[in-house]
Amino acid sequence: MDSQCSLHVLAADVVVQDDSAVLLVRPTTPHDGAEGWRLPAERLRFGEAPEACARRLLKEQLGLEPEWVALAEVESSVDGAVWSLTFHFKCDADRRPVAGPAIAEARFFQIEHLPATAHGRREREIVYRVVTAA
User: Which stretches make up the Nudix hydrolase domain (predicted)?
Assistant: First the structure.
């Protein structure tokens, strides 16, 4: 494994629950080129705290302002020369989401019936880990 890193990416995503359903979104223009459903996610701005990023993405992308947003886990991954640190949050929906300009569609799906997603099984695995986290 190459120990050199030419780019660091800090990101946050949020598993938004409504009873036994989870919110997935389809971006209008996916930043990674992968079409399909995914968790609401955003890169952290320079100096931004991960929870502030999660709250910002919920408000700007979906019109949500939940009372609590909890960190469930932090995931470190390497893809080529890019090292990513992703903060996985969870919260309960405080209202029905309203898709912002970057979101083509936002929809709740029952956890046991999640659709095919942009990154294969990755989103499904994150949802299960986050939902079952203490």
Answer: 7-134
